[in-house]
Write a structure and sequence with these properties.
Layout lengths: L18 H7 L1 H5 L2 H15 L6 H7 L6 H16 L2 E5 L1 E4 L28 H13 L4 E4 L9 H14 L4 E4 L2 H11 L3 H11 L1 E3 L10 H8 L5 H13 L4 E7 L5 H18 L2 E8 L15 H14 L5 E2 L3 H4 L1 H7 L6 E4 L6 H4 L10 H10 L3 E4 L5 E5 L7 E6 L6
Parallel strand pairs: 1-9, 1-10, 2-3, 3-4, 4-5, 6-7, 7-8
Antiparallel strand pairs: 11-12
The structure holds ligand V47.
Length: about 425
Amino acid sequence: MGPSGRAPWPVSHGILLTEKSLARMGLAEMTMNITAKDRFQEICRKVEARQRLSFDDGIALYDPAIPLQVVAELANSVRERMHGNVAYYNINTHLNPTNVCIYRCRFCAFRSDLRDPKGYVMDERAVRVRGQEAFENGCTEMHIVGGLHHKMGYDWYRGIISQLHAEFPSIHLKAWTPVEVGWFEHLTKKSVRDILIDLREAGLGSLPGGGAEIFHSEVRDQLCEHKANAHKWFEVHRTAHQLGIRSNCTMLYGHIEEAHHRIDHMLRLRSLQDETGGFQTFIPLAFHPDNTELSDLKKPSALVDLRNIAVARLMLDNIPHIKAYWIMLGIETAQVALHYGADDIDGTVRHELIYHDAGATTPEILSVERIRELISETGREPIERDTLYHQIHRDPEDFRKWTTGKALELVGN
Ligand code: V47
């Protein structure tokens, strides 16, 4: 917001991309052929009428014949209709208790073999040090995921949650993906439901969005054939939502997938959301190829990143938030993404390994001042949230102390 309390440019609380506004942008006549223009105007009409976009609409939005700028303007108008001018962030840290993993996903640079010198496993003391550091730095959230260690039992994974929850009860634990939960099922022979109930009792707060990759078997079988399949991924999230545990969802793009795999992926998420309403945020994740088996591929460009954000905002009409994960996008692209459909930039983050092992050149942490400044520079108003999207009010005398305010409602939908 500007000093007057108003955004430095008009915030569109309705859809504006009619013939007139396309003409105003000068793009309709200049760059779109007739078929693409008709197709896009039909999509605009649907969005304006709050009608659901179809699979074919999604494919069209990826068609380079429809310029990114107009897709972005449409996505931005939906984003502003839902969230006004605010952009969310949190103060968080990552904890990857082990990188040793039985799986060998082709896109992963983080994993290690059991006997590889790179492999590590954290003990109770190491976990405590990380909890203490998170507490001292005012974190409201720990994002906990790791490998499936050949030798560590369910009790070790559960123990991380119960220890952190007992020692640092104010920190929300967003932990374990369906890949781990599927592994716990194998280890304990218990149902997904019983495992999630047990983890919640231990202190689990919500599930992160990882492990989704691309659901379509044409791609998934080539990337991570043995890992939890789409069915398991959805079973875990559906069960979590039925138990009142919220979760996020992701999509790993920019490798061997095509547009139809991405749209298929989003529509599967949209469909579960219709059923349960339990997803909070969708996070498109750009593939980083360094140190992976797919290192011959190029990292997706910023234009691909931004189109994915915009398409996701338009297709996922029932998922409240779209996150521009700055660690993965880079700071500048994440800033731009706040005008391409995203309303959240993730958090200050510390100890991120998955992307940095795969060649991310972003910093490993941002200060609170910097993240607020990055959001403000885009003309958006920074709001600190907790994991479940309640406003956080910091004590001005001691930033480690906070109170949780109201649930952050959508402006409209
Ligand atoms: O599932 C792994 C991806 C995910 C690479 O819930 C890679 O708020 C790119 O899920 N290049 C884990 N991507 C990260 C994740 C996440 C991140 C931020 C916020 C949230 C949330 C969730 O990272 C994995 C996989 O899809 N990944 N390796 C790589 N080389």
